[in-house]
Amino acid sequence: MTSDSRTKPFHEPPVQRRHVGYGLALPLVRSGVTRFHRIERIEGLEHLGDAQVPTIFVANHQNGLMDPLVLSSLYGPNQIHWLTRADIFYKRVARTMLFSFNQMPVFRQRDKLSDARQRNERVFEICAERLNIGATMGLFPEGNHRAVKSLRMLRRGVVDMVNQSISLSPDMKRLRIQPVGIDYEEMQGFRRRLTYRIGPAIGFLDLINPETGQITPGELLVRIHSAMNDLMVNIQPESHYDDLLPYVQSLRTTEAQDWSKTRDLIRTLGRISEETLDGIREAHLDAKKTGIFDASRPEDLGQDPTHVRSTPWWFWPLAPIAIIGGMASWPFSKFVENQAKKRVKDPCFTSTFKVSIGMFLVPLYWFALAWPLGWILTGAWGGMGVLAAYLFNLIGSRISGWWYGHYLDWKGSRKARSVYAQPHQASAWKNYLNSIDQALQTNQHSARS
């Protein structure tokens, strides 16, 4: 064993399908995710197979630790097992907690371990052993996170895991590879929309080489890439990502009633010529100079003034109930918001920071607050008054958060109407959208001819 291996020991994860720690934490995770995000829809539940069948979920990765939290909270039948960077496993307390949450270490080049490959091979063997007893794995084949709505080149780890599983037992050919697309309206923002799409299982039996019993990585990765591309927003080319992003945002992908139509429209952007893309960049810069993107979000502007969201009749009558219900939680929410601005440098971890605090500290905050509130209600410390105050904050904050999501829509619609009321901004936005629409129409005519 080399010196670096001695200073950084390898703590082998146990072979397990479920753990009580995960089960206890899941309600808190689910509460945190659904409170922070506004779950717009979950599509493709019919594609999920028997929960007893070993499954590997493969998903896009944009939002740090929030992505696994979202998947874990929205998939109920089985606990999901994850691979996490190895450097956080060295402390005993952290390691014990991570193992209880079904986390396993994966070693990267930056860990500078001479036996990193051997360690990863053993971890993948343990993953296969867990799958063999019916576990569900979660993988992000892109290998790391990045806060862009694009699908990157996939790493071969998922294929290695499948090959390890097949080598372990012929019965593992029943393994399911389930693709998932996670679509955030605005991943850092509280009560912004989130849509989650599940696709059909990816077949791989025909890719197994009869001589070696293994799958060539490239062939399966092509299928996984295609399946993930069907379910997520993939803006291409990345060289013009910033120029195309506002257009895609204006399509409101999380609200798309016909996702396949919206997806195909986005795909067409990748076929626009470089010369035309340069023209779109000019139109984007012109729109930016008018201050549009400081004044309003593209999601609120939509494609034209008729797309500006309307306010439901019950919105303002329910405002007093929402304000009262969230009054006690508001100071702590502002504290968390300010702490996130101070402490979180990577935007990919902003929502993770907020949700993590919400999962663990908000219930404690409510409990501490319930004692004086209970005394005010009953004149006694403890008893039913404390329980009533705690439940009031628990339920009231839910109502307040639900209303706040609609408040954001109302606020966004006001800003959008203000932009459309400014001739220079409205004209610049229209010219920008037209530059892309005309390019897409040209591509359609070329394809037909």
Strand portion, in percent? 5-15%
- Average residue pLDDT: 93
Q: What is the global morphology?
A: globular
Poorly predicted runs of 5 or more residues:
none
- Strand order in space, largest sheet: 1-7-6-2-5-3-4
The helix/strand order is HHEEHEHEHEHEEHHHHHHHHHHH
Distance between the termini: 66 Å
Structural class: alpha/beta
For the sheet with most strands, the description reads: 7 strands, mixed
Determine the oligomeric state from the structure: single chain
Number of helices: 17
Percent range for helical residues?
Answer: 40-55%
Rg for CA atoms: 25 Å
- Number of distinct beta strands: 7
How would you characterize this protein structure?
Helices cover 54% and strands 9% of the residues. It has 449 residues and is α/β, with parallel strands linked by helices. A seven-stranded mixed β-sheet has the order 1-7-6-2-5-3-4, sandwiched between helices. Strand 3 (80-85), helix 4 (92-100) and strand 4 (103-106) form a beta-alpha-beta unit. Helix 10 runs antiparallel to helix 17, helix 14 packs antiparallel against helix 15 and helix 15 packs across helix 16 (384-421). The radius of gyration is 25 Å and the shape is globular. The chain starts with a helix and ends with a helix.
